[in-house]
Design brief:
The protein is an alpha/beta fold. It contains ten helices and eight strands. It has one domain: Cobalamin biosynthesis CobH/CbiC, precorrin-8X methylmutase (Rossmann fold, 3-Layer(aba) Sandwich). An eight-stranded mixed β-sheet has the order 1-3-8-7-6-4-5-2, sandwiched between helices. Helix 9 links the parallel strand 7 and strand 8. The radius of gyration is 17 Å and the shape is globular. The two termini are about 25 Å apart. The N terminus is likely disordered.
């Protein structure tokens, strides 16, 4: 895995329903505000030397957050991103840990079980968080080869690491002072194909942005 360098300083309860979308990626219109945001980003940081998928993910996370610290905070490997992109191309399930993450992914149906009644029951029986229970149930429902997007709950990421999920890619960007950095360190140590970051920051918006970057990059191919 590699850290990304900054070049210079700046001056529902189960599946989240979507309209039917083919695994082949849909085209989208790019708003002028987005174009301007990317132009500003590229004036402030030189990302041109990054590998294609690494650049796409890094720039979209920075664009979504307006936080240039992600240029040095993100940790990813191009081969892991390529594996995730290939899985998405084949129509692999996308699993999210929270409704907020799911809401940010608009071109794919998303498996999210945090509001599933089974998660409520499991959490009570097992003494675990609803997020962890949702991850356990989602793993059973989605099966191996899914792309996981965790942007809210460190406990969901810890649970995923304890499961035999066999993910194609884990986008692990949960946020918080309690357990987030530790969960992401455990993900990096796990050997699973992953995109994550080192600090406590993260969140639903940046996790969804990272997944969308892979989708949009495939669309542009």
């Amino acid at each position: 895995m590699r850290r990304i360098p900054v070049s210079h300083d700046p001056a529902s309860h189960s599946r989240v329903s979507r309209s039917p979308v083919s695994p082949a990626l849909v085209s989208r219109l790019i708003h002028p505000i987005e174009e301007e945001s990317y132009a500003i980003l590229r004036m402030r940081a030189d990302t041109a030397a990054l590998a294609p998928l690494t650049r796409a993910v890094t720039e979209r996370v920075v664009h979504a957050s307006a936080d240039l610290d992600y240029l040095t905070d993100l940790v990813c490997a191009e081969e892991a991103l390529a594996a995730g992109a290939a899985a998405l191309r084949r129509g692999a399930p996308v699993v999210a840990d929270s409704v907020m993450v799911s809401a940010g992914i608009t071109s794919r149906e998303v498996v999210c079980r945090v509001r599933d009644p089974r998660a409520r029951s499991l959490a009570a029986r097992a003494g675990i968080t609803r997020s962890a229970a949702g991850a356990r149930i989602a793993c059973r429902d989605a099966g191996p080869g899914a792309v996981w997007v965790i942007g809210t709950a460190p406990t969901a990421l810890f649970e995923l690491l304890d499961l035999d999920a066999e993910p194609a890619l884990v986008i692990g960007l949960p946020v918080g002072f309690v357990g987030a950095a530790e969960a992401k360190a455990a993900l990096r140590a796990s050997g699973l194909p992953a995109l994550t970051n080192q600090s406590e920051k993260g969140g639903a918006a940046v996790a969804a942005a990272a997944l969308n970057a892979l989708l949009y990059h495939e669309e542009a191919r």
